[in-house]
Write a structure and sequence with these properties.
GO biological process, one term: chromosome segregation
Largest sheet: 5 strands, mixed
GO molecular function: DNA binding
Number of domains: 4
Shape: globular
Family: Belongs to the ParB family.
Number of helices: 13
Structural class: alpha/beta
Radius of gyration: 33 Å
InterPro entries: Chromosome_partition/occlusion, ParB/RepB/Spo0J, ParB/Sulfiredoxin_sf, ParB_N
Organism: Mesorhizobium prunaredense
């Protein structure tokens, strides 16, 4: 038996499945659980002749529940699968998996207690994941609940705290958790939850390590990991901006060394509006604009632009060069007097300077 994680587009219902070909199953009893915690019980699959796809022998309802959830959220999470091998007894394999997962308590706090006990007994994260048929990341996420104060864990067990709030609290220091718990226990105070809690923890700036222009190894401060969102954040925003500004200055100098006439670093929070600029190559006076997001710390360089008010005279000069030359003839502008008595007809009418001036106006 081999456990693996596969995206939905690599799975299909096997003809061996007893409900293959029937209409979509009723998911009302399992969809709330899948929506809250995802698919925990692995699907039983086997290769269907292609190394990139597998067919589902058991787990059809879990598969349809995952597809329904993907339609709701606009994205699909991969599914845990147990791959059958030649000679395996499928009934015994699925019975073994169900028996293992059945020992896993339904709420996350109870799962944390179980996993923590296994860790103390010497089991590793990969071993726990293999035992219960879940991914190593799922095990790490559950173990992260150990970072919570006991009173917060108990409130989470009693559903007094939602899942998103509990997960953000795993990133908080013990002092921050105590401050939040004091707000939570006081009916007259407001304890931030969800995304507001995330902003509260980071002083209004939750800056991801993905936006750093500098090497993460050069950051001397604390980095907080979010196991649930697969993100890492800078704990000290001031220290981040010190390193980020140094990196922006280095990028500006590098652009100047590469021949750009000017590099303009916009004020933090000031947006670069493309409709106020037009693409202009370096050789014709194009500049580099660097926009900096104050809240998220993201840096967005835009190379090869010039303000439209500066580009207008150049456009007019090009238009002048493209205008056709006068076609002199018997009725050329030199022989015309006024438009009121002009008898010139096309194509000679183009030779009239008045007509050309109106055309280019």
């Amino acid at each position: 038996m081999q456990l693996a994680i596969f995206p939905l587009d690599r799975l299909n219902i096997s003809a061996l499945n007893m409900r293959h070909g029937k209409r979509a199953p009723d998911l009302s009893d399992i969809l709330p659980s899948v929506r809250a915690r995802g698919v925990l019980v692995p699907l039983l699959v086997r290769p269907n002749g292609s190394p990139e796809s597998f067919e589902i022998v058991a787990g059809r309802r879990r598969y349809f529940a995952a597809k329904s959830l993907a339609d709701e959220r606009g994205k699909a999470d991969p599914l845990p699968c147990a791959i059958m091998e030649a000679g395996e007894d499928a009934d015994a394999l699925e019975a073994s998996l169900i028996e293992n997962v059945a020992r896993l308590d339904p709420d996350e706090v109870s799962q944390w207690e179980t996993f923590s006990r296994l860790i103390r007994e010497g089991r590793t994260v990969p071993e726990i994941a293999g035992t219960f048929g879940i991914t190593e990341l799922q095990v790490k996420r559950i173990l992260a609940l150990g970072e919570l104060l006991p009173k917060i864990r108990e409130a989470y067990r009693r559903d007094e705290i939602d899942t998103e709030t509990a997960r953000y609290l795993t990133m908080a220091s013990k002092a921050q958790q105590k401050d939040w718990l004091a707000l939570f226990a006081d009916p007259g105070q407001y304890a931030p939850r969800g995304y507001q809690l995330k902003q509260w923890l980071f002083g209004g700036q939750s800056i991801s390590t993905k936006v750093a222009l500098f090497a993460i190894e050069d950051y001397p401060g604390l980095i907080v990991s979010d196991l649930f969102g697969k993100e890492s954040y800078f704990a000290d925003a001031d220290l981040f901006w010190q390193k980020q500004n140094e990196a922006i200055a280095a990028k500006r100098d590098a652009c100047l060394e590469h021949g750009w006439s000017e590099v303009i670093v916009l004020e933090p929070g000031q947006q670069f509006h493309s409709w106020d600029h037009e693409k202009t190559p370096k050789q014709k006076g194009g500049k580099v604009f660097i926009a900096v997001s104050y809240r998220g710390g993201r840096v967005s360089p835009r190379a090869g632009y010039r303000a439209r008010r500066l580009a207008a005279p150049a456009r007019m000069a090009r238009a002048q060069r493209r205008r056709p030359r006068n076609r002199r003839g018997p009725n050329s502008p030199d022989r015309c007097r006024t438009m009121s008595i002009c008898t010139v007809m096309p194509p000679c009418a183009w030779a009239c300077s008045t007509i050309r001036a109106q055309h280019f106006a």
